[in-house]
Structures are given as C-alpha cells and as structure tokens.
Amino acid sequence: MNSPAFPPSQPAGTPLPDDMAMLRAAAELTRDISTARPALYWPDMLGSASVGYGALAGAILLTGWQAAACAVLAVLALYRALLFIHELTHIHRDALPGFRFAWNSLVGIPLLTPSFMYEGVHTLHHARTRYGTADDPEYLPLALMTPLSLPGFILIALALPFALLFRFAVLVPLGVVIAPLRRLIWARASALSINPAFRRRPPEGLFARMVFWQELGGAAWALALLALSASYGWRPLLTGLCVVSAVALFNQLRTLVAHLWQNEGEQMTVTAQYLDSVNVPPPGIWAELWAPVGLRYHATHHLLPSLPYHALPEAHRRLSQRFGEGSTYAGATYPGLWMLIGRIARSTMRRREARTIAWTPGEA
C-alpha cells in the first residue's frame, strides 16, 4: 500500500505543508514507550555478535555446504549486530551505560566500523534544514539519476571492507606523521556517507577524545589482522572480508530502499521527509532480515528519531490505528524490497527517456 507523494489538493511542484495532526499524534502516542530498555538492547546485541562470530568461525574451519551455511548465518547475525551503530547515534549518552564501549569493542572495531564513523554524521541527515539537500551526507537523488547509477551504488559496497582495512592499517598510521594526510582522511574517509560532496568537520572536545581511542583500536586491530595472516595464512582474513562484504551489500540494498530519493536539493518539511521515507511493516517477514533493528520502520523513525528501535513496531501500530487507510501516515507504507527497487529503477528509466526526448533534435 502507498499513496501519492502529494495529497489530491496539493499540486505537484509546490511545497508540501506539514500534517500537524500526524506530527502531534506521533509525539503524544509514544511518550510512554520512549525509553531505551537495557533488557532488550544488551541480549540482542550480544546474542547477534556471538552467533555471528561463531558462524564466521564455522565458515573458516568447515568446508562445502556447511561452510556456506555458516557464512550465510554469519552475514545475517553480524549485519544485525552492526546496525546497532544506528541506535548509538540516537540514544541519549546516559541511557545505556557501557553499551557504546561494549559495542565498539565487540563489533565496531573488529568489523573496522567504529561508532565515530556514524556518530555526528547521521544526525545531520535528520536535521530539518539539511535532509535531502546537498548538505545531507546520507542523501542522493537516486531515483532521478541514470539507470546505471543503481547497480554502481549497490556493488561499490562490496569493496568497503577492503577499503576500511587499508584505511586503518595504512592511512591512519601514515596520518600520524603526515598532518595534511590526516586532515584529508578525516574530511573524506571517516564517515559512512553516500554523498560524495560531503566533507566532515574536525572533531572537537569529548568526541575528539573518543575518536582518538577508536582510531587507535581500529589501527591496532587492522595491523594485527595483517600480521597474523602473513604468519599463519590468509584464508581466515579473506573469508572474514568476504562475509563483511556481503554484510555491506545487504546494508546498501537496505539503504537503497530506505527512501524514495526524489528530492533535488530543496529543503523539505517534516511531512515531506516522512513521505520520502519508507515503512515495510508486517505481515511481510523478510524485512526483519534485510532491515533489522527497527529499520523496517524507517519513515516512522524519521518522525520520531529518538524512539528506541524496540518501540517502533508499537508506534507504527498506534499511528496506523489512529489515522487508517488513505491518511498521510499510511502514505509511507510499502509491501517489500523488490517492489521498492523496481519503483526506483522505473523512475531512473523514465528520467532517461525524458532526457532522450529533450535531447532529440527537431526536424530540419
């Protein structure tokens, strides 16, 4: 189910006003479920990481179908564990004592994706005046680009783990002694962003201190991986890199369908941002695999960025019950992954056809 990008009374091309009734209801209906629950965060993160690393060990030590099955399980479990980085950017610093340190120690640094690569970046994507503009590090008008941009956007994710290994093992140590390189690495290669024009500002205060320790841990881990592989064989490292490549590919597919990617740089109201985002709620079950940790409710998350992931299903249920079919809230609901990929692909094809028609010279 989905609804038009504009209500029937709203001409296309004009600013979409905020649905104030929806915005007020979103805040009022979720006040009692807005607290992060440690009893859910800790077992979920620790369990996902444990299953992921155990399955990764099986993929390294076993052969044949057993190794392949372990690799698939490792991808799914480590993907879920890794996506808690999204929660770290939104929960209050004091909400889950020790969770950030534990996640970085067990997941972020071992997978060479410490939380500084998302913290201070993802919140810019939620800034009302930045979303969908050139200043949004996590936005590209993918639906308005060329058809070839989509496979390129997806497949580039496969190289991410190898690029991260090079970053931490080579570039970070070199940056310690070459200041211009250190500044370049921070500005261009320290953020999980998709906007190639994004340049990151230098870290400050307590965040700079956190960055230092996470960079140190990532560099030490990357160098240890290379040293151990050179001494005892490369198969474990290559297997791990391939698994993490598959994790990155999964995440890139999820990113591709998290929004409709139809904005061309103008500032958008909160309601317009919501309708440019996507919910894939039940009864479909597969979305919990490709969009775990609450990310199947990405549009609702844009309404309520600080709401913990475990509260999003209930928030969606309450808001759906309040507004029903045909409402603005229902307009961000879609049935599944392939439908959304097809929608974006068709949009790029229409844009190509429009450009072709516009380019075709007139009759002599």
UniProtKB/TrEMBL annotation:
Protein name in UniProt: Fatty acid desaturase family protein
TM regions (residue ranges): 55-81, 139-160, 166-185, 206-228, 234-253
Top-level lineage group: Bacteria
UniProtKB keywords: Membrane, Transmembrane, Transmembrane helix
Keyword Transmembrane helix attached: yes
Lineage: Bacteria, Pseudomonadati, Pseudomonadota, Alphaproteobacteria, Sphingomonadales
Fatty acid desaturase domain segment(s): 64-326
Pfam families: FA_desaturase
